[in-house]
Design goal:
This protein is mainly alpha-helical. The protein is built from one helix and no strands. The radius of gyration is 28 Å and the shape is rod-shaped. Keywords: Membrane, Transmembrane, Transmembrane helix.
């Protein structure tokens, strides 16, 4: 095999590996960002509900006074 053909085959192999691995990595990152977004949404809802509960407790104690 000539030297140019070996270099071409190596480049072809590298591009093939990148073409196989890159979509998997991007898909995994997409899943992570979706999960992160979901987690932040849940945290926001929990904080909002906690604040609402505290507000309701404050309103009840003010009415008793």
């Amino acid at each position: 095999m000539s030297k140019k053909l070996k270099i071409f085959r190596m480049i072809e192999l590298i591009i093939g590996v990148i073409g196989f691995v890159l979509p998997s990595i991007l898909y995994f990152m997409d899943i992570l960002s979706g999960a992160e977004s979901g987690i932040l949404t849940v945290v926001g809802v929990v904080i909002f509900n906690h604040a609402t509960d505290l507000s309701n407790k404050d309103n009840k104690t003010e009415k008793k006074i």
